[in-house]
TrEMBL record:
Presence of the UniProt keyword Flavoprotein in the record: yes
Organism: Cellulomonas cellasea
Cofactor list: FAD
Protein name, entry field: 6-hydroxy-D-nicotine oxidase
UniProt record similarity statement: Belongs to the oxygen-dependent FAD-linked oxidoreductase family.
UniProt domain FAD-binding PCMH-type: residue ranges: 40-210
InterPro entries on file: BBE (IPR012951), FAD-bd_PCMH (IPR016166), FAD-bd_PCMH-like_sf (IPR036318), FAD-bd_PCMH_sub1 (IPR016167), FAD-bd_PCMH_sub2 (IPR016169), FAD-linked_Oxidoreductase (IPR050416), Oxid_FAD_bind_N (IPR006094), Oxy_OxRdtase_FAD_BS (IPR006093)
Entry keyword Oxidoreductase: yes
Keywords, ordered alphabetically: FAD, Flavoprotein, Oxidoreductase
Pfam families, per database record: BBE (PF08031), FAD_binding_4 (PF01565)
GO molecular function list: FAD binding; oxidoreductase activity
Amino acid sequence: MTQMTGSHVGARLRERVRGQVWQHEDAGYDAARTVWNGAVDRRPAVVVRCADADDVRTALLLAREHGVPLAVRGGGHDWAGRAVLDGGVVLDLSAMRAVRVDAGAVVAHAQGGALVADVVDPAAVQGLGTATAVVRSVGMAGMTLAGGYGGLVGRFGLALDNLLSADVLLPDGTHVTAGPDGDPELLWALRGGGGNFGVVTAARYRLHPLGQVLGGMVLYPQEQAVDVLRGYRDVLAAAPDELTVMAGFVTGPTGTPAVFVAPTWSGDLTAGERAVAPLTRLGTPLGGGVAPLPYPELIRMFEAGSAPGRHYALGTRWLPGLTDDAIRTLADAATTSPSPSSLLALHHFHGAAARVTPDTTAFALRRDHLLAEVIASWAPDDADPTATAAAHHAWVSRVASALAPGALPGGYPNILGPDDADRTRLGFGANADRLLAAKRRYDPDGVLSAVAAIGG
């Protein structure tokens, strides 16, 4: 696409949409093209911050008419930066964040740009909640469409298991309601296939009665890491649905690596105290603790470690269990990270999420497992940014490779990068061919490519 074409599309968008439009020469353009990962530095021809679904349709059709590549920005939290692209049109949904909680129907109605916080905060006021990721600032739709691991997965399943229906604009401008009474095949594909089939302008999420949860984080010294993670493994083996436990490594209060366990108990609090107690006795704690609190407050815990504007690189493996080799790999990796801001995390998948039949949703991995996240994080103002970035990417690659023996095929699409198409497809297992058929049906021209393996 030439700059003239981009200018032409931008000019036509200014005439036709209610939302804001930015091009290279406009004040605010640099802010409009920014996403969570400060390492992503791309220059779209046009960014259009859509005011409503009509704006989305207008921008979508104009981009197609002019043959301009397209990206969709919801929460903008994808580390690989697929929400923006050089020379293309970015459909920015960040102004479409309205949420309505229907307490009687136990459903949250959310626009496509709503963040996790926009959904869980008003739901909690009504004594309700739903499965989400562990960070409040991620986009609800983008997180849900690929999976949505979090502290309620054992009791309520993945976030995508709670997606009831969605309003979708297909790449040809057709409006479709993906749902059991509308287009069930599209709903099936959206539950794990990501934003590859159309633009989700609104969605409805199942809510559940949810009072205070019992949660927090307990830190242990790095030298106790092997024993702590072995104890963690034992707790997981007997964990009921109400108990989902994250673990991993962060920088502790003394500035050195520390191993953490972060439980979420979502049932009776008295029973929860007994269930969580063993996690506070895995070693000699450095600090932290567990207490009753509202779910929206619990998921503030990792906000500081996912600050926007820092530079990030991510890697991942699905682990069928926590072997001694994996424990040693993680413990060693915590001591070799180039930055104290980096994080190693294990997300617990079990209970309700594991009882779903694999072909019920596009997300196919329905056995107990751990999602290992390797997150490198560093400041953007380093004296030698190229060398710094290379060191962090190398660390992520080394750790992910060291965890590969014994890991399950594929990986979580929300963490895999654009070069991981083979692993992404493997992750869909027996559902891959059906998902590819859905891609050909809903986006035959390959306009959208949020997940590499089915990006067309």
